Amino acid sequence: MKKKAVLIFTLIFFAVMLLLTLTARSIHNASIPHVSARRLTNQIFTEEFADENGDMQTLKRYSLAIDRELYESGNIYVLTQTLINGEYRDTARLAHIETGAEAGRYIEVISGLNPIDRIITDAKGELYDGCEVVVVK
Amino acid sequence: MKKIVFTVVMIIAAVIFILPVIATLALSFWNGGEVSAEGYSDLLFNCFVFYPMFWNSVIYAAVITAVQLVVIIPCAFAFSQAKFKGKGLLFTFYIVLMMMPLQVTVLPNYIGLRDLGLLNTAWGIILPMIFSPFGVVVMHQYMKSTDSAIIEATRLETNSIFRIILTAVVPQLRVCIFAVVLFVFADCWNMVEQPMLFLNDDSLKTMSVFIVNAADYTGHVLFPASVIFIVPVFLLYLFFSDSLEKGLTFGEIS
Fold first, then answer.
1. Which of A6, A64, B165, B188 could form a disulfide with B238 if both were Cys (CB 3.0 to 4.6 A apart)?
2. In 10 A of CB A40, how many CB atoms?
């Protein structure tokens, strides 16, 4: 009787561990923000300036650009990989960016972002600096 | 009066031995000054490296225990039944080997595994552990008390050593086998040095290494991991507890 009870408990223990092994990550992912991310594009920005003779000149620059709508929506978060509990996971890093010229729906990014950065464009859930996220493909 | 004093001393000794286990269990539910299961939540739902390490421990311990039995029983049978020159010397060598601390054998093992190219593989853990003298010595002592008439009778029926072992020896050794299984499994389950020295890859490491490195992980994972770490060996002990005492008295009871 005792052996039977121990055997049943052992089976339950290993079954629970197996179940957790298979589902723990999904359960964890369901509790953190799901985000979409994409790279920034480069756009042509025009800047007018007066030369030494006082004539107006136009300078065209091909620079990193951010969507005006995204920029005005609030904080800009960059997708990064952080070592958490022994593995690299996707996290959101708050970006402090400096903007320059505007062109249509784009705003020039002068500093704070790199061309290789993936910025978070859409998030289901509240983001904060350093929070773990799930990237929706 | 003597009996009462003896009982009190035994109770105090039992409390001293069980206190660390109770403390581990209590502290696993203690977080930030209040009772909480947050440590378990941190461990089970945010620390995914824990799972491969748990299953590695299960696989290593199960495989080593099973293969050790295959090696130990014929070896102990040979020591007990076969007649060959240097048997006593060889058995003394086994006992000396059993007495040696792990730290003495770990470097030769490391060099051997390195030369065989087995470092950072599961075999690097399993192979050196398979040939443990402890089980052979215990089983050989127990075999002295077995009924040799049964073995002789089986010998008349067959010449196959393996058949003799399976039909005449193993049934008589059942109690001892259970005790050896428990000790070998617990020994493998608790190993720390071998996975830390022979393995680099985290995906191959064991739960004991996870506990050693618990400070590297976020959340209060140490005590919950320790509680889960205790469970399999405790269950195995409960399962074989009846056989344990008999098995370790080298057959004197039977």
1. A6
2. 21
